[in-house]
Amino acid sequence: ESLSGFSNSAVVLWAWQWRVLASLLPLFSPSEKCPENKPPCSFKEIDHCGRKKRCSGKMKCCKFNCAKKCVDPDEDVCSLPKEVGLCLALIPRWWYNKETKRCSKFTYGGCAGNNNNFQSEAVCRSICPDVCKSQGSHLPSSLAPVGGLGVNWSIPGSWQAWS
Fold first, then answer.
1. Is 38 inside a domain boundary?
2. How confident is residue 5, by pLDDT bands cut at 50, 70 and 90?
3. pLDDT tens digits along 29-68
4. Is residue 50 part of a domain?
């Protein structure tokens, strides 16, 4: 038997393929969730959005970086460039520099800019933790203790004394 010239097996296969594609669709559609973060804020910042002030486009009002801010849930904040903003205030802030893989200090103008803008290095590191893991000590991880004169030093375990 056929339905509009198609065999039943072709219709079943077609329906199954669409069902599989429909189940994969959420993987490619924009995220509706806000990024999860609980940074160690020194103070609460001014909210940029809320009931009376909505976000535009695909931006979502999220608790982010010590305030409610308009955030693109699909954007990697830690890869955004440093933006000092349009105003002329001199506010010390931190941003994640993806080139150096470090949180770095900069002077923020006080308006505009982007969300790669944090009140402290601790907040920057808490929001960009995976990319900041390399910011620890630059010494090798396999260290051997060396003592003397009441001071404990560490040197890589593979180093040998001069002979």
1. no
2. low
3. 445 788 888 888 999 999 999 988 999 998 999 998 899 9
4. no
Place of tokens 């010239």: 5
Q: How many domains, in total, are found in the chain?
A: 1
d(CA 160, CA 11): 73
Residues of the domain holding 124: 75-135
Please provide the distance, in angstroms rounded to a whole number, between the alpha carbons at the two ends of the chain: 91
Q: Which residues, 6 or more positions from 93, have their beta carbon under 8 angstroms from its beta carbon?
A: 105, 106, 107, 108, 117, 118, 119
Q: Could you give the 3-state DSSP secondary structure of residue 79?
A: helix
Question: Taking 60 as the threshold, does the pLDDT of residue 104 lie above it?
Answer: yes
Beta bridge partners of 95: 104
CATH classification of the domain holding 107? 4.10.410.10
| Gap between the Cα atoms of 146 and 134, Å rounded | 25
E strands, the chain, in order? 2-3, 6-7, 60-64, 67-71, 91-97, 102-108, 143-148, 151-156
| pLDDT confidence of residue 101 | 93
Q: Is residue 13 part of a domain?
A: no
- H/E element, 24: helix 8-28
Residue 97 C-beta-side C-alpha neighbours within 13 Å: 11
Which two tokens mark 21?
């594609």
